[in-house]
């Protein structure tokens, strides 16, 4: 998906890891929320409260879900799901990885 209609966007950025991961929250009329963001090269770990779907829309990354040892190589046009009350480690080797994070029903 390249654009969203009829949404409200938080102008204040969500900034993590000294600015190496930055996103903005997008709120939909039905009450759902997504974040749109950039991940610069590096290794990061994120925890989740709600289940999430991470869609990679540009670039690529490697992901290891908490509780697993398998490395998932995710390219643009692909996604991975993360359970609620869990987390994942993500590595961007080079370039910028762009993503859409959708918060899924529990």
Descriptive account of the structure:
0% of the residues lie in helices and 60% in strands. The protein has 106 residues and is an all-beta fold. It has one domain: Jelly Rolls (Sandwich). The strands form two sheets. Strands 1, 2, 3, 4, 6, 9 and 11 form a seven-stranded antiparallel β-sheet that branches. A four-stranded antiparallel β-sheet has the order 5-10-7-8, with no helix packed on it. Strand 7 and strand 8 form a beta hairpin. The mean pLDDT is 95.
In short:
With 106 residues, the protein is mostly beta strands. It has strands at residues 7-9, 14-16, 21-28, 33-39, 42-48, 52-58, 60-65, 72-75, 78-82, 86-92, 97-103. It has no helices and eleven strands.
Gap from first CA to last CA:
23 Å
Low-confidence stretches: none
How large is the count of helical segments? 0
Q: Which structural class fits the helix and strand makeup?
A: mainly beta
The number of E-state strands comes to: 11
Beta strand %: over 45%
Mean pLDDT across the residues is 95
Rg, nearest Å: 13 Å
Which CATH-level-2 architecture? Answer: Sandwich
CATH class: Mainly Beta
CATH topology: Jelly Rolls
Q: Which percent bin holds the helix content? A: under 10%
Largest sheet: 7 strands, antiparallel
General shape: globular
The tally of domains stands at: 1
CATH superfamily: Jelly Rolls
Following the backbone from N to C, one meets helices and strands in this order, namely EEEEEEEEEEE
């Amino acid at each position: 998906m390249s654009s969203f209609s009829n949404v409200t966007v938080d102008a204040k950025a969500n900034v993590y890891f000294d600015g190496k991961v930055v996103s903005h929250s997008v709120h939909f009329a039905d009450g759902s929320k997504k974040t749109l963001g950039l991940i610069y090269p590096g290794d990061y770990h994120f925890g989740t409260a709600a289940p999430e779907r991470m869609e990679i829309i540009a670039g690529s990354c490697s992901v290891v879900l908490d509780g697993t040892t398998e490395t998932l190589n995710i390219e643009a046009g692909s996604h991975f799901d993360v359970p609620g009350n869990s987390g994942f480690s993500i590595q961007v080797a080079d370039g910028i990885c762009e993503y859409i994070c959708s918060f899924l029903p529990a």
